[in-house]
């Protein structure tokens, strides 16, 4: 018995000694690193604080802010856009201007106004180009200028603007069109629920106009007091498809009463708080993200399209390099048939990354991105929120394949070709394709999540090939999302009973599903999950069964 107790004491003693040694070694290493601090890695501020250089941006406020470059600009003398249905004061439309959504059509709850604001050069862009196809709500209007500054092709944007959001958006867009030349390549379409048509602002909304005048957004040409712009009728006998086809070629390019000379003062920048005072948030309206995606697709006119989220910024020279790559592939593989790589169910995947919120700008080249990745200042998109969503096949090969700094052309190359099958059946790639790909299901909303999964499943059954591109990528506007932060924010919002705030806060990071479910089984998610089952069952009934195309 005594021998047993002695052995037990010795074991405990060994454990304690090990713990003490471990603590001493760890502390010693940290002290050594501290004493060997390199002046290149650390800076002293005026108060004597020692901070790491990569934290300095956060400390002095040099973080990336969407549209902030406009703060030092003043509006020009002329606009770069045509306001087809009038400006924020003269805006008006008729039944002939109204279309239905691409998938649900007349039975759907949403109505479309195509090409409300169109850049003067949009129709002059080459059809053999790549259109950046995206969608927004009022809060994300200024993301358009960030895309326009980086994208060398046409841009098609679907804006969800119910009620008075329409007029506020028009006012801000007027200013953007006087300030940013690249707006000449943008085509903007409006979406609204048929029960919440566009409304003009009233004199009674005094606080709103005070805010607008404070930031030189509103120019009081005249004040209009009315409840709605135009009473729309659902008895629209025009053929929706005909209207859309006309839109793609030369939709109503008649001049409007919109001002073409600058009447603005001050800077081009609009504070974020102005755009967050939205009709959508006040009315707790859901965001029909797939209606918006489909509308923006239908509004494009180029051969290729990139359906993306507005917060995803492209790498440099992506359009030209991609078109050059397609040309090379077709020339080298003529034996496969003409346009094999564009007509035979091929789409081209752009890897997506996110960078630290303290980065003053997003990387534009792969070399810049890899440099941040090695410093753990960049990760693949949603790494800490949804590991399978954007972790693409061959990611390690992509990261190891560096681009030679002297190479100026041909930087975009196919890395590998895969199918979206098990174990990548939950992968949600963002890709360059054409308008031949299946539409997004308009029954699914952003709030319910899984909004792209039905299209992905259908493309799996259609045996699409996903070509992962090396040398091209997208980067989310700075800020790495982490699970514990999302949980904290989600629980707080749920406690306050304000689920709509989640939509505004996390607009493009659609993978907060697990976190919201863990806090509460949200009605939107239940609805999307139910519809997802119905839609996928219908899709599977139309195609040959493939056991590797899983839905869970």
TrEMBL record:
A Pfam family annotated for this UniProt entry: Glyco_transf_49
Origin, by domain of life?
A: Eukaryota
Protein name in the entry: N-acetyllactosaminide beta-1,3-N-acetylglucosaminyltransferase
UniProt organism field: Pediculus humanus subsp. corporis (Body louse)
Gene giving rise to this polypeptide: 8239818
């Amino acid at each position: 018995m005594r021998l047993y107790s002695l052995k037990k004491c010795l074991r405990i003693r060994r454990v304690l000694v090990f713990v003490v040694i471990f603590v001493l070694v760890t502390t010693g290493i940290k002290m050594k690193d501290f004493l060997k601090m390199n002046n290149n890695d650390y800076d002293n501020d005026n108060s004597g604080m020692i901070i790491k250089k990569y934290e300095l941006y956060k400390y002095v406020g040099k973080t990336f802010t969407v549209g902030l470059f406009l703060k030092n600009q003043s509006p020009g003398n002329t606009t770069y856009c045509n306001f087809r249905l009038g400006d924020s004061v003269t805006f008006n439309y008729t039944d002939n201007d109204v279309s239905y959504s691409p998938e649900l059509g007349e039975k759907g709850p949403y109505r479309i106004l195509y090409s409300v604001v169109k850049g003067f050069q949009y129709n002059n862009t080459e059809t053999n180009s790549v259109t950046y196809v995206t969608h927004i709500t009022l809060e994300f209007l200024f993301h358009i200028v960030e895309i326009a500054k980086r994208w060398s092709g046409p841009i098609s944007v679907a804006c969800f603007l119910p009620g008075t959001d329409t007029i506020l958006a028009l006012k801000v867009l007027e200013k953007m069109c006087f300030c940013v030349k690249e707006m000449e390549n943008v085509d903007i379409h409006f979406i609204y629920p048929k029960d919440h048509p566009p409304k003009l602002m009233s004199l009674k909304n005094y606080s709103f106009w005070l805010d607008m005048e404070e930031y030189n957004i509103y120019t009081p040409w005249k004040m209009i007091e009315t409840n709605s712009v135009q009473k729309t009728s659902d008895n629209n006998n025009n053929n929706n498809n005909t209207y859309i086809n006309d839109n793609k070629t030369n939709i109503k390019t008649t001049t409007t009463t919109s001002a073409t000379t600058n009447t603005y003062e001050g800077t081009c920048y609009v504070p974020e708080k102005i755009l967050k005072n939205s009709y959508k948030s006040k009315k707790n309206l859901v965001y029909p993200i797939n209606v918006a995606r489909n509308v923006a697709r239908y509004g494009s006119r180029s051969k290729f399209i990139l359906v993306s989220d507005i917060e995803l910024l492209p790498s440099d020279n992506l359009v030209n390099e991609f078109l050059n790559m397609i040309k090379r592939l077709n020339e080298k593989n003529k034996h496969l048939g003409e346009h094999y790589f564009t007509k035979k169910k091929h789409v081209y995947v752009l890897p997506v990354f996110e960078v630290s919120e303290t980065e003053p700008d997003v990387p534009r080249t792969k070399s810049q991105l890899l440099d941040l990745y090695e410093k753990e200042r960049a990760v693949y998109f949603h790494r800490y929120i949804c590991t399978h969503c954007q972790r693409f096949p061959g990611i390690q090969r992509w990261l190891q394949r560096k681009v030679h700094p002297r190479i100026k052309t041909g930087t975009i190359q196919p890395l590998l070709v895969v199918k979206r099958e098990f174990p990548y059946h939950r992968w949600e790639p963002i890709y360059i394709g054409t308008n031949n790909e299946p539409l997004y299901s308009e029954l699914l909303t952003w709030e319910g999540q899984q909004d792209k999964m039905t299209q992905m499943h259908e493309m799996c059954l259609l045996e699409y090939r996903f070509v992962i591109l090396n040398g091209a990528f997208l980067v989310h506007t700075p800020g790495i999302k982490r699970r514990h932060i999302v949980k904290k924010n989600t629980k707080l919002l749920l406690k306050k009973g304000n689920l709509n705030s989640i939509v505004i806060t996390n607009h493009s990071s659609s993978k907060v599903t697990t976190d919201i479910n863990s806090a509460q089984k949200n009605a939107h998610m239940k609805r999307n999950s139910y519809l997802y089952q119905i839609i996928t069952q219908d899709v599977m009934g139309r195609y040959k069964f493939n056991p590797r195309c899983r839905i869970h």
